[in-house]
Amino acid sequence: MPMVLLMTPATDTTAAFEQYVLPELDLLYRTARSLTHADADAQDLVQETLLRAYRAIDRFDGRYPRAWLLTIMRNANINRARKRQPDLLADPDLTFERWAQTANNDGPEDLVVGATFDATVEAAFDALPEKFREVVELVDLNGLSYQEAADMLDVPVGTVMSRLHRARKRIRDHIAEVGLDALGGDH
Amino acid sequence: MSGSDPRHLSCEEVLLSLQSYLDGETGAGNARQMVGHLDLCPDCDHERQIYADIKRALMSCRASIDPDVKAGLLAYGQRLARGEI
User: Fold this and answer.
1) ipTM of the assembly?
2) Radius of gyration, alpha carbons of chain B
3) B77–A50 CB contact, under 8 Å
4) Which member of B20, B25, B59 has the closest CB to residue A140?
């Protein structure tokens, strides 16, 4: 019966897609948001990833679905970037230094008053250079491992570690600048 | 703390591995050595607390997905799964 022969692989494909792909929607969207920095672009990238995953699900062996999906997303994002004119970004180091200079001019008391530890961390995070911020987003906000972040960014795992640790060190230094490091964890 | 005992880490070594340790990216052996040092060294443990707080604060920045966006993506995925796209 041709009908059965046609339906069986489709059912397997559907089941595999629902088992391996759909549960990772949150991860895919958060990661896409980190890569594209825009909600609409992130939705497009997730849809492109889902489409590619669906077309490739027959060849997926069921192992490490997260890594498989993130690789698909990385490749989709590379294709997407190639189609676009590269953005002209300001020098991220200068951006951070300008922000730090402004913060210093305000004085530590001004920064501490009314600010929580978390808000201070978030402000320092926002001011990080792009290359630092993206690894923090992937590891701390999205929960990727060092290796997963390295695969996503197509850089060595040592580069992820270096950028991540330097990024957090900058945040930690800012915490010290505004005098919040003496609080330990009690805030 | 001294790092002369090969089984123990120096403060410098602990501070170098501290972030990887908090990320769960060090091996079990190294993690045990870290714990052994941190239990006895208030200065390094203070640094651990600060970096743990920074990590917790960063994790709390995690943007929740707009339910409508998620519903739209899920519907798209389900249409794909049913072979409708």
Assistant:
1) 0.75
2) 21
3) yes
4) B59
Cβ atoms of A90 and A50 within 8 Å: the answer is no
| CB-based burial, A70-83: b 16+ in 10 Å, e otherwise | bebbbebbeeeeee
- The CA distance from A47 to A29, in Å, is 9
Split at pLDDT 50, 70, 90, the class of A184 is very low
Selecting from A17, A118, A187 the residue whose C-beta is nearest the C-beta of B60 gives A118
pLDDT one-digit tens code per residue, B2-52 = 444 546 899 999 999 999 999 999 988 889 999 999 999 999 999 999 999
B40 contact A CB<8A: no
Q: What is the residue type of A167? A: A
Residue A93 or A162, more confident: A162
Tokens 């769960």 label which residue? B24
pTM for the model: 0.62
* Residue type for position A64: Y
Residue-averaged pLDDT of chain A: 77
Give the C-alpha separation, B66 to A70, whole Å: 21
Determine contact: B79 vs chain A, CB below 8 A. no
CB A118 within 8 A of CB A140: no
- Interface contact B35, partner A, CB < 8 A: no
A40 exposed, middle or buried (CB, 10 Å; 0-12, 13-18, 19+)? Answer: exposed
Structure token digits, residue B12: 């410098």
Using a CB–CB cutoff of 8 Å, tell me whether A121 touches chain B.
Answer: yes
d(CA A127, CA A44) in angstroms, rounded, equals: 27
Q: How close are the terminal C-alpha atoms of chain A, in Å?
A: 69
